[in-house]
Specification:
By secondary structure, the chain is of the alpha+beta class. It contains three helices and seven strands; from the N terminus they run βααββββββα. Helix 1 packs across helix 3. It is globular. The mean pLDDT is about 90.
Length: about 150
């Protein structure tokens, strides 16, 4: 089994607000620097994305890939790679835990990436850490700057 990289951040918003931003794929290009395009290809009976195509430009890595999403309740979403030009695998998840009576949320992002080009494990873990840290910082900024219902 491949090793994974994970990191957590606390966001000053309720879990539902955080998950609302995570689930809004169409707006990813507005707050994630790497995602240039996001297209929901399939949804489940609850209207949540099951398959999403993402056009990624992360400097050294430019890719057009499709991910399959699995939603577990209202506090976890995981994904796995369906197809990609540059990646062999991409498995990840966001897990949300309410803090302070639900006014704050601890978000844990877990990620395993395997690229088709040879890469040392240490370099791969560092790349995963950069991806995770950027994603969590972007998510925090987006959620905390958004007006809440």
């Amino acid at each position: 089994m491949a090793e994974h990289t994970s990191s957590s951040i606390t966001i000053e918003a309720a879990p539902a607000d955080v998950m609302g931003v995570i689930a809004d794929f169409a707006r990813y290009p507005e707050w994630t620097g790497e995602v240039k395009e996001a297209e929901v290809l399939a949804t489940d009976e609850a209207g949540r994305a099951e398959k999403v195509r993402l056009l990624l430009d992360a400097g050294a890595i430019k890719d057009d890939h499709t991910l399959a999403y699995t939603w577990t309740g209202d506090d976890q979403v995981s994904w796995t790679l369906v197809k990609s030009q540059m990646l062999r695998s991409l498995d990840g998840s966001y897990s949300l835990a309410p803090l302070s009576g639900g006014d704050r949320t601890e978000v844990t992002y877990q990620l395993t990436v395997d690229v088709k080009i040879p890469m040392l494990g240490m370099i791969k873990r560092k790349a995963e850490k950069v991806i995770i840290d950027r994603a969590l910082a972007g998510l925090k900024k987006r959620v905390e700057s958004a007006p809440h219902a």
